[in-house]
Design brief:
By secondary structure, the chain is α+β, with helices and mostly antiparallel strands. The protein has one domain (3-120). The chain contains four helices and eight strands. The relative contact order is 0.27. The model has no long low-confidence stretch (mean pLDDT 92).
Length: 121
């Protein structure tokens, strides 16, 4: 994770590959929070590498949902220290695993808005 210093506190850039349904829920939340996980989704996993997020959105979300999107957002770096980086495969396949029951607290540490940065159909 590479911290970015803004005018108030250090933040870390994260990416999230997502399908159209989750993106609609983020839009409904004013681009400021992630929606609650479904019962079969015990973990929210933002990723640390934009290329990895693109690969998931393009190769998985498009196949399963007809469209895939990549979002980018900033989170308070000090808060993120509670989530060890998980290597889910290769050297750049890095994720944070946020338990579903901690997502509200995670959302409270998002700095600014969630941005849509890539779209695949």
């Amino acid at each position: 994770m590479v911290p970015v210093q803004n005018d108030r506190r250090a933040t870390t850039t994260l990416w999230r590959p997502t399908g159209p349904e989750e993106l609609d829920l983020v839009r409904d939340l004013g681009w400021r929070a992630w929606p609650p996980r479904l019962p079969e989704q015990p973990i929210f996993y933002p990723v640390l590498d934009e290329d990895y997020a693109i690969k998931i959105a393009r190769d998985w979300n498009v196949k399963h949902d007809g469209a895939g999107f990549v979002t980018r957002f900033e989170v308070d770096t000090a808060f993120l220290t509670r989530y060890p980086v998980q290597q889910a495969g290769g050297r750049t396949i890095l994720e944070l695993w946020v338990p579903a029951e901690e997502l509200d607290e995670f959302n409270a540490h998002i700095v600014g808005k969630i941005e849509l940065v890539h779209e695949f159909h």
